[in-house]
Amino acid sequence: MFRFTYQIYRKVFPVVKRELAYWRQRAEKIPDRELRQQALASIDNKTFHCEGGSIYSIPALKQRDILIPLIVAYQTISDYLDNLCDRSTSLDPQDFRQLHQSMLDAVTPDAPLKDYYRFRDEKEDGNYLNELVLTCQRMILQLPGYHHVQDEVVRLASLYTDMQVHKHVNPDEREDRLKKWWESYASQYPGIYWNEFAAAAGSTLGVFMLFQTAVRPKVPSDEIERILDAYFPWITGLHILLDYLVDLEEDRVGGDLNFITYYNGDTDVKQRLSFIAEEARRTARLLPDADFHLMIIDGLLGLYLADGKVNRQPGVASVSRYLLKQASWKARFFFLNSRMYRGKKQEIQRPRHT
Predict the structure, then answer these.
(1) Residue 236 in contact with residue 283, Cβ under 8 Å?
(2) Which residue among 31, 93, 302, 317 is the one 20 to 30 A from 61 at the CA level?
């Protein structure tokens, strides 16, 4: 675990910093004021997403100069589009879907570029989004085993796109749209609720894991199936539900959709998140390099539950204590390390969920 932490800070984060510095420089040159503002905000306020995603390069450090630029570019698209949808005057699902077509094109190496701003007034981005898409495509072409995982990467990207579209429409429509969307998948995922499925779709971790897998020329199909069984909906669901848990009060005040509110009180939250965490662990143990995936799960629990917002929400604090009690000592280590690193009175600078 200590070697893992050392690699994060010495081998991964410096490359992430370099990549983000480049994309920030590009964002500063965006002609349209609104697009420039949202692009810069997505980088300045959501560095955490790129850092966390790039941890998936650790088991393949020899290929980090491929994986980290790919992960950073893809996550930067995600964060940028989330800002455009979250803070947009538009409530047009057609606009949101066209914007997110860029995420599908980014993971399809031979896909032509499209007019991603077709249905919105702001259009002049100085080729920023196109360059992000092309960077992803160029890096993917250097992954020898990508053809083995491409279909599943596109499927996860499609689910992410669907969730983002339904989540950002008129507040009076979003819940009905999300539930109707879930109905077409319910039979495939009998162990989860609609809000848990939607949360799982909002994570990019499954895509990053498949990127890492594709550094190998040959990837057995049964291994890909086990990765998907572990990541969607369990690891990705845990990831985003913890994010929503921490932001529960903030979303209530702001009137924003929060998937945690669809549980029946704190007891239900504890039981469901504990169940999802245990399923994440169970399925992770079946993967090659299981210790890495278990470390990811422990890191998610420790880092999110150490957020300064937790103790300001009695119900959330109670859930946090329960989950940490159920977790391994490594999760508690990450929890204490996060607290010590940021300071007990300093809130962890973590971006809001997508």
Answers:
(1) no
(2) 302
Phi, psi of 240 (to 5 degrees): -80, -35
Nearest to 276 by CA among 238, 305, 323: 238
- Give dist(CA 184, CA 190) in Å, integer: 12
Residues in the chain predicted with pLDDT less than 50, given as ranges, are 344-349, 351
Encoded tokens for 264: 């029946």
pLDDT of residue 86: 81
Torsional class of 126: left (φ above 0), alpha (ψ -120 to 50), beta (otherwise): left
pTM, entire model? 0.93
Q: Domain boundaries in the chain?
A: 1-142, 145-354
Q: How far is CA 310 from CA 250, 297, 303, 323, in A?
A: 11, 19, 11, 13
Question: Exposure of 304 by Cβ count < 10 A (0-12 exposed, 13-18 middle, 19+ buried)?
Answer: buried
Cβ within 8 Å of residue 10, ≥6 positions away: none
**pLDDT score recorded for residue 9:** 84
- Cα-Cα-Cα-Cα dihedral sign, residues 130, 132, 134, 137: negative
Write down the pLDDT at residue 88: 66
Chain centroid, CA 127 distance in Å: 24
Intra-chain end-to-end CA distance of the chain, in Å? 29
> Torsions phi, psi of 118, nearest 5?
-55, -40
Is there a contact between 129 and 102 (Cβ–Cβ < 8 Å)?
yes
The tokens describing 209, both together, are 């894991």
